[in-house]
Write a structure and sequence with these properties.
This protein is α/β, with parallel strands linked by helices. Helices cover 45% and strands 7% of the residues. A four-stranded mixed sheet has the order 1-3-4-2. The protein is elongated. The two termini are 27 Å apart. The relative contact order is 0.13.
């Protein structure tokens, strides 16, 4: 948390953005545990790709592009009022390690400029990618579905141009164009997951891998949403992806200038220079009083009796039950207390992900205390889901009203990174997790961010 109005600093991802392009994809995954998806496809003959070496990466890319062409060839006329889909002008595979004999790539002065990225060039209507470094790294770190999400995002920019027949997107902020492309990628990955395409297949782990890649593509923490190269933070990017995955192309096309983004620039030099990180105990000291204030107010507004939970630094066990099944932060009913095991995984995640990884766990356990005060279930998937949703509702409210601190740039990114990696924030008091996939955990958390407490108590 920042300035006690706290702050959390997400893992910063830096990438070279090609200044000559309107749209590019930052493509260096975050540090930490890789989230690998299963094989998506054996791939098809990539001979229609210029510069291909016929290898596994290009075979996967070829399968993705052929399925993208087939899907949008069927779908775009329905969205565009009958206008036929116009195939792209070409695709280019480049190995930047090859200093000689590289195929010239439109929109680039030198093929080496494609290193570490993939892009769509609207003036030439082509997609190009780094075969030698980018695609192998994506497959190693996140699985084949990471390649699919990168190429489907770039293809989404081509879809944008074909649907924007009135010029409504001319001059639109880059972050808005990127959100639409992420949404179109989500639509396509849903087709892959559902087995609706001839070449590509994946499962839930593959979708989590694709989302892990999106987190890796986020802007450096503190990037202004008005930056001409802004692509969005992790929360905004996975939100757009999930809107498409759970929706359809019409949902993506409707993303407009009224879209609310959570990405923000640093508000002070002190916040930026510190990265906004608090140590574990300073975070607890700063956050617990605000959690008590906010959750107590939500309970009282609904006619419940709120008792401030105690805060204990121990092994996260309860006197009458094995609280350790909840993870490194546990809520115990008798007496009402939040128990925090600051060693092991909590300390590691706090250091590796950022302090709002810990903050998300604390908020979910105070959410459990609020559920108990309202005589709602705290155990099982129902209890875990509601508590996680309430953590999202709290996160959206931080900094408003009488709050003692505000979230800093990157805080919500820590939440989605934690939720993609592990299920502890979604566990009920009996240790049963609300969802088995990172996708679902992030969806539940987002429901709280966007819908507030009422949405959480209605059920998500």
């Amino acid at each position: 948390m920042a300035r006690v109005r706290g702050s959390v600093r997400a893992l910063v991802v830096t990438c070279a953005v090609l200044a000559v392009l309107v749209t590019t994809a930052c493509a260096f995954p975050v540090d930490g545990r890789a989230i690998a998806g299963p094989e998506v496809s054996p791939g098809i003959d990539p001979s229609f790709v210029q510069g291909t070496n016929g290898g596994d990466e290009d075979r996967l890319a070829a399968a993705t592009l052929r399925d993208l062409e087939g899907y949008w060839g069927r779908e775009l006329p329905q969205v565009a009022g009958g206008a036929p889909f116009r195939p792209l002008a070409g695709y280019f595979s480049v190995d930047p390690r090859n200093r000689t004999g590289a195929v010239p790539v439109p929109c680039l002065q030198n093929p080496q400029e494609v290193r570490g990225t993939a892009f769509y060039c609207p003036s030439a209507d082509i997609i190009a990618w780094d075969r030698g470094e980018l695609l192998p790294q994506l497959r190693r770190d996140f699985g084949d579905s990471a390649v699919v999400v990168v190429l489907s995002h770039e293809f989404g920019h081509a879809v944008q141009g074909r649907l924007d027949r009135t010029g409504a997107l001319q001059g639109a902020p880059t972050i808005l164009l990127e959100a639409q492309a992420d949404c179109y990628a989500g639509v396509f990955l849903r087709q892959v997951r559902d087995g609706a395409l001839p070449d590509l297949r994946t499962g839930a782990a593959g979708i989590d891998g694709a989302m892990g890649a999106l987190i890796g593509f986020r802007d450096p923490v503190g990037t202004s949403p008005r930056n001409v190269q802004a692509h969005g933070n992790a929360f905004d990017r996975v939100s757009s992806f999930q809107d498409g995955f759970d929706g359809d192309p019409d949902v993506c096309q409707a993303i407009g200038r009224d879209r609310v983004f959570t990405q923000e620039a640093f508000r002070s030099q002190a916040d930026e220079s510190s990265g906004g990180n608090l140590g574990l105990q300073p975070l607890i000291d700063a956050m617990v009083p605000d959690l008590d204030r906010w959750f107590g107010g939500e309970v009282r507004r609904r006619g419940g009796q709120w008792t401030t939970p105690g805060t204990e630094r121990d092994e996260a066990t309860c006197p009458d039950a094995d609280g350790a099944v909840q993870g490194p932060v546990a809520w115990c009913a008798t007496p009402s207390a939040v128990h925090i095991d600051g060693s092991g995984t909590l300390a590691a995640d706090h250091a590796r992900i950022g302090d709002y990884a810990t903050g998300t766990l604390l908020a979910s356990r105070f959410g459990t205390a609020a559920l108990a005060a309202l005589n709602r279930p705290t155990a099982g998937a129902e209890g875990g889901r509601a508590a996680l949703c309430l953590a999202g509702a709290y996160s959206a409210a931080v900094g408003s009203g009488a709050s003692g601190f505000a979230l800093s740039p990157g805080d919500l990114d820590e939440s989605v990174t934690l939720l993609l990696r592990e299920d502890t924030a979604s566990r009920g008091t009996d240790g049963v997790a609300a969802a088995g996939t990172g996708y679902e955990r992030i969806r539940v958390f987002r429901a709280g961010v966007t819908g507030g407490t009422d949405a959480c108590l209605r059920g998500v």
